[in-house]
Amino acid sequence: MAASKVDPIIAEYGKPNKKVYRTILRAIERYDKIAIFRHIKPDFDAMGTQMGLYYWLKGNYPNKEIHFLGDNHVSFTPRLFPETENLPESWFKENKFLAIIVDVGDEERIADPRWKKAAYKVKIDHHPCKKEIAKKATLCDLSMAAAAELCVDFLLNCKGKVMPPIAAENFYIGLVGDSGRFLYSSTSPHSFAVASALIATGIDISSIYKKMYEKDIDSLKSLAYVLANFKVSPHGVAYYLLPKEAQEELHITPELGKEHVNTFSNVRGINAWCSITEDPNPKDYCWRISIRSKEKDISGIANKWEGGGHAQASGAKIKDLTKLDEFIADLDALFA
Ligand code: AMP
User: Fold this and answer.
1) What is the pLDDT of residues 90-141, one digit of tens each?
2) Within the chain, which residue ranges are assigned CATH 3.90.1640.10?
3) Which of 27, 33, 109, 201 could form a disulfide with 97 if both were Cys (CB 3.0 to 4.6 A apart)?
4) Which of 71, 75, 109, 240 to mutate to test the pocket of ligand 1 (most atoms within 8 A of CB)?
């Protein structure tokens, strides 16, 4: 499909920070070599924003050298996104490049440490962060449902540029992923305006949903395990554990096990829900927790438990199961 022009219709909904937009656009124009980074354990938004920006840059600056970095996803690559490029160490030494870091707050969560070698750094994100890594060129808006939503707002405000449909498709995946298919309370008129601008490029959203949410039979078996083994705390925190042995038996990884977390999203009496998966290769924290919440802000609890994230979707970690009851009690107390 040919690239098509989209009017920057969304400026009236958002509050675009025009000064930062100009700074970032100038940085993009200045560098011939650009590498795009995202967070570890990528999700739809991290990969969709990264690849959307990659295709946008390729479409608008065909003479620039653009790369994308970070670990692959267990089921999204290569089904939904291309496998990550294997750039040699020498590339980073020899080239003056621009690093664009998307969908990640703190530096320890950036999937490839070589962003540090960049001559200039830009960040586009919607997470709270403890220490800023791109002081002069950070575009961060916590009110955005997805990093993709913010990135598209910026790109549609770049005059004279086009939004190639392949870029729109990737951004749409990011937006749908992090807004929970427009169900989370972070979804706003601005989110729909961005969705509308992306759909206007001619993308086929039904084929996108099919690619995003298609399941295989093994995943039904692991769902059956989750449904047979979940527990609910006194004030409505549902959670399930996936120990290593269960993952082996079900032929799943922790990432695949986590994908069942939203099974509990629309159940009366359940206020928050978690997947708690054992990491087969732990450094020190053995259990990774994905926390989701219907209404209350769970990010404070995630912060307390070595994690962070958003009001309705956060991540945390515990070293071993002796801490499980304490963690669940903390979360449960939010709803008492
Ligand atoms: P997850 O449950 O891993 O899908 O994460 C949900 C959200 O919380 C995502 O936006 C993550 O980027 C964020 N998140 C997960 N783990 C952490 C962490 N350890 N520190 C900060 N943010 C996190």
Assistant:
1) 999 999 999 999 999 999 999 999 999 999 999 999 998 888 889 889 999 9
2) 8-212
3) 33
4) 109
What's the 39 CA to ligand 1 centre distance in angstroms? Answer: 9
pLDDT tens, residue by residue, 6-58: 444 444 444 557 889 999 999 999 999 999 999 999 999 999 999 999 999 99
**DSSP letters spanning 158-223:** STT--B-HHHHHHHHHHHHHHTTTTTSTT--HHHHHHHHHHHTTT--HHHHHHHHH---HHHHHHH
* Ranges in the chain annotated CATH 3.10.310.30: 218-333
What is the pLDDT at residue 270?
98
pTM of the model: 0.88
Instruction: Could you please state the CATH topology (level 3) that the domain comprising 218-333 is classified under.
Output: Diaminopimelate Epimerase; Chain A, domain 1 (3.10.310)
> Omega into 113 within 30° of 0, i.e. cis?
no
